[in-house]
Each structure stands twice: as structure tokens, then as C-alpha cells.
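Obj.: predict assembly geometry.
Materials: sequence records (below).
Method: joint structure prediction, all chains together.
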Amino acid sequence: MIKLSTKQTKRLVSIHGWSGVFLGLLLYVVLLTGTLAVFASDIGTWSAGGMKSHEPLRQPLDHTIRALAHEMPQEYLEEITVFYNSAGHIVVFFHTHAVNPEGTFDEKGVLTELHPESHRPIAQREGFGTELFGADPAGALDEFLVELHVNLHLPDPWGLYATGLLGFLMLVSAISGILIHRHLIADLFVAPRPWNRLLHARDRHNLAGTWTLPFAILLAFTGAFLSFALSLGFPLLSQIAFSGDQFAMMEALVGTGYEENAQPAELANLDLMLSLSAQHAGSPPESFVISNYGRADTQVIVFHPPKDGAMVGAQNTFDGISGSYLGLKPGIGTQPSLGNWVFELILPLHFGTFAGLLSQLVWFALGLAACYVTLSGQQLWLDRRLDDANWCVLRRLVQIVGYGLPLAILGSTYGFFLSLPAKQTLLWTPLGFCLLGLASIGLGVLIREKELASKAFHVAMTVLLVLLPMARIAAGGPNWIWALSSNNVSIVLFDTILILIGLCFFFTISRIKPFVLLEKQTLEPKAGHEQ
Amino acid sequence: MISIRDQLKNRSDRRFFSDLKVRWLLAGPGALLGAIVVMSAMPIWFPKGAAEIDHLIFPLILFPAIWALLFFYSCLTEDLIRACWIFGSLIVINVILVLMTLFWP
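Observations (raw C-alpha cells):
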């Protein structure tokens, strides 16, 4: 352990405490939504009513893409991106690259949504990528949660700056936590002392904090990188290395790897390329991109999720005219490099996808523990200042945000399901969040007694969680029999988990008791063991 | 009897730029500015690597680490004058590098 002087330790304890007190609640918002975002695609599938087809890009697509390309303006044939959304519908985006009205680098084109089996068009929209990708009513819920995690729904680039700074705050809390810990290893196995409520609470905070320390540092580091890389680093570096040309920097990073040739030429059989790519990657295609459609320099890149036992997915490149396999393309650049290796490592580590479902579950559990550490740290700070009236507002705020955020998320879920039949989810998902958020603030303000307010929040959580699966089915969502017969087990699993969490809240209502400072202090045997 | 050390400390607290204020300036705007200028200048001297992208990727990846290093150094150091010199030199050298690249490529 690093030896610090008393002054240095005091300074770090101050930083650890004050940073958590001032920005801990915002950090809690990012942490909780990030924890849910670990299962964002599963939440998307659950909310969209299950996947209509489990491997939509395995089916013949060659004829459909050609027919669609025939109708498109020439400029949108520069790049065609094909993927599938939460409901399993195929999305084809014909586009070019342009600067949007906000002055940022963007994609501009026509987005068509197709039924996964009949390939019948369901919806078609034209515009910039930033507008089109957030406009799918079926994906409104997971999109809303991810956006809340990524930029707190603040305008760009301020939202990314805010979450980047919160990443720094988490880094500060975690590293200062390590430095001020005197018994880091011992605290991994500490049993919370039951004879004193304050020490008991601090032991539990230390226990959860110690177990989440490596996770917190990893997430804070990767999260701050993702936020600042897009909002600050990319524009700055393009200014210095490419004289402000963001297109040139993007090209250098993505890497075209082909010689320009604008002569007209016919695309090779797409279905054969997709099938060959799946054989090479060992997993079905997740999406693919056709560059320069109809030209002699057409290139097809097929993206695959990680195969069993692999940490990262694969990107296979094909010559679009001959259909020949050109090899595996790195995520960044045109050939393997250290930069690409580190970059490809960061994404699965942040999203928790490096070992499939198991790592996602571990990341989810550690995310919840980190939320607990954030709130319990603030609670500890406030419990030591019970007699100080200046901290009364923050005490109330911690309770309101602590319970209010999950309630508001449930509000957005209800808003989504109740407006899904009318396809008004883009409006009602954020509105549901705001309504339940306001209701939580009202509940916290009106009920002055803290324990009574906690009980009211638990009752609200129980009712909303238990009734949610019923609301989903009542709003036209699939029932359990359809879900099980169509291999959409995640719907049944999610519903069950929601009901179980609701019941947990119900059974803990009676355990909420008033906090008494230093109760039975005299029974404490070893006061000297404190930090 | 007040010791010399305490007398010096009292004198430091009465100054406009007290130790606390200097530490705040170094750990707050200083660390952020330092990390931004180091990141900005890194593409100039960092090796490009096999795919010629390392000099673009590593500044982005290392930005949080550079900030954390500067932040904790300014929080833990007892020698604030030396810290000011280090921060100042770091910022000036990297700003000169960036300006030279922008205006005299």
C-alpha cells in the first residue's frame, strides 16, 4: 500500500468526500443507466415485442438490395449500411457523407426498414443520420436509456463533456478510495459491525466499494475516453494532424484500403459473400457496408459478433465486383496495429460483452454495487452531519434522486408501452420519465418524515414493477406462450425479473427503520479499528 | 512560542495565492489544460505505428490517464513551487509544439 503522510491522507479524504457530495447524484444517474445499458439490446428486443427473425441477415438479400438501389439517387449509393433493429427488422441506409445543419460531420440519405421475411418496406425516411437513427418508435426505450447514459440528454457536445467529467470524478473517487484505504485486502472480507448503525453503514460502503474498485477504475477510464474522444479529442486532433479536415481523419482511422475507380461495374452476388463471411467468422452477420455501389471499386465489409470464446467480433472484407474474400479488416486502420488492439479491447471492457452473458451479468451486478457505493457514500457523509441543518436539503435530495431515478425509468417504460400502439413512443417515453420524476420529487417533498417517504417509494416501486409485465401485454405486447414458442425467452426472463424485484421491494418495506446516530455506542468493543 | 514553520505557513495563508488556492488552480484548470495540450501535441511526436493510426488513437486513449496523473500529482505534492514549474513547462512546451505545427508546418 502507498504510504501517505497525515496531511496527504486528509487532503484525499476531503477530495473523496466533497467530490462525491457535489457530483455524486449525477454520477449515480450515469451509473444506473449504464448498468441498464449493459442489456440495452435485450431491453430493446423486450420492449419491441421480441425478434420476428433471429438471424435476419442470413436470408437472401441480394435481390432486395439491388431493387432498392435502383430507386435511389446516385449520390446515396456512395455507401449502403445494412443491419437489423431491436424488433429484428432489416434496416437499409443508402447514404453519402455531408456536414449537417449543426455543422458536424454526418451521414445523409434514405433509411428503409424492411420486414425480415417478406422484405416488404415498413417505413422509409430521408435526412441526416443523427435525425434518422433516433426516430424508430420501436427502439425508443433503449435509445432513451442509452442517450441518458451517454449524454444525459444534453445537446452535443455538452452532454459528452458532462459525462466525461463524471468519468473523471469516478476516477478520482476510485483512486482516492484506494489511496486512503488502510486495509484494502482485509476490507474485501469485512463483516459489517452490527452494534453501531454508523459503523455498520460505513463497513457496508467499504465492502461494496472495495469489491467495485477495479471495475470503477476501468469503467471511469474507458467511459471518460469514449466521451472525450468524440467531443474533444477528435476535433482537436483533426485540426492538428489534418488541418481541420475531419473527413480526412475519419478516412485515416477507418481506412479505405482500395484504389479509386469510378468505372461502372456490377456488384457480385451478395448472398454468397455473406455466407462465406459467416463461415470465416464463425458467427452470423450482424451488419454489412457496401462502399461505392455500382462502381469498379465496390467493397463489401461484413461485421460479425464475437464467436464463442472470442472477445471481439470480426470484420471481413470482400471485393464487391469479383466477390473474392480480401481478408480480415481491423476495426481501426487497414492493417493490424497496437492502436487498433487497444481500441478493440476498450469497447468490450466498457460494455461488458467480453465473455458473453456471464460478463454482462457480472458487469450488471458490479454496476448496481457502484450505484450503492455512490449513494451510501453520500448517506454516510450526511449521517455524520445529522445535527447540521445546512445539509437538510441534500439529505432530502439523495433520497428523492435515489428512489426517483428508478421510478422515472419505470415511468419512461410505462410511457413507451402505453403509447406503442399509437406509435407515439418518441414523445411519451421521455414524457413518462419526466412525469414519474416529478411525482417522485412531489412525494419526497410532501412527506417530511424520511422513513415514511422511503416506505412510500418502496410501495410505488413494488406496484410499478409488478404491474409492468401486465401493462406490456395489455398494450399489445406478446404473451409468454408466444414468446416461448418463438424462441424469445428474454421476454419471459425480463418479466419474471421485474416481478421478483418488485416483490423484493415489497418485503423490505417493513425493514425501514429510523436512523439513530451512535446508538448503543457504548457496546462498541474496538473503537481503534476505525480508519 | 510560534515555530518558524508555522510563521511561514501563516504568511502563506495571508498571501493572495495561498497554498490552497494554488493547489486548487493546479488540480482544477491546470490539470485539465495540461491534459488537453499534451493530447493535442502527441500526434506530432508519437510513433505512427504499422497502420499509421497509433499517433491518433493513443492521445485519445491516454487523455484520462494524463489528466489523472496531473490531478493526483497536484493533490499529493508538498512542493507546490516545483509543481507550478512542471505544469508551466509542460503547457508551454506543448503549446509551442502545437503552434509550430499549425503555423509553420
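Conclusions so far: Chain B touches chain A at residues 36, 39-41, 43-44, 49-61, 63-65, 67-68, 71-72, 75-76, 78, 98, 101-102, 105 (CB under 8 Å).
To do: check interface contacts against the pulldown list.
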